[in-house]
Amino acid sequence: MKKLTQKIKPIYTLGFLLIGLSFLFAFKSDKNGVADKGYAIGDVVADFKLKSTSGKYVSMADNRLAKGYIIVFMCNHCPFSKAYESRIMALDRKFAYLGYPVLAINPNDPNAYEEDSFENMQAIAKAKGYSFSYLQDESQATARAFGASRTPSVYVVKKEGDKFILQYIGGIDDNTQDPNSVTKRYVEDAVSNLLAGKPVVGNFTKTVGCAIKWKDA
Asked: 116-121, long-range: CB within 8 Å, 24+ apart, which pairs?
């Protein structure tokens, strides 16, 4: 039995090593969770018009009272998106009435994961009671324009006149697994600074999440 255990241990060690390497390469396949091309801090973000789970089409220009938006690329199936779901809802509750509502966008190809279909988006938005608009990026053009590559990833934009200027790119906070152990609240701090008329400190952080499932070209 002892000899058998000794033979099995190297197999398990090799297996864990391969999993670790595949995980590492997955995260190195893009630049800190952001695609090579896309908006940079200070860029003017082009408006979009996407179908929401309510059946209506939503754009940033629709809300004339908005001072900006917390734009979150998320989806139904990703465990990282699921882990952050309650925190995304909390961000909307805290900042929507102050002029920075959440706009959540699902960019995934539903053929890759049926759970990310529009019908399932509607079901989860209703079941969870989303207070924010949950939009489908069916063509994936919006995700590509932003340079998003993972879910969830966040882009905070500030409205200046009739333009939307990108102020923050990255993650929501510094602890995916345990919200009670968060020490840095990146998005919350960014929006709070903007509301106080201050510049965003640390306007770019690494995005950790599931790779967006792109449609075949």
From this structure: 116/75, 116/76, 116/77, 116/213, 118/51, 118/53, 120/76, 121/53, 121/76
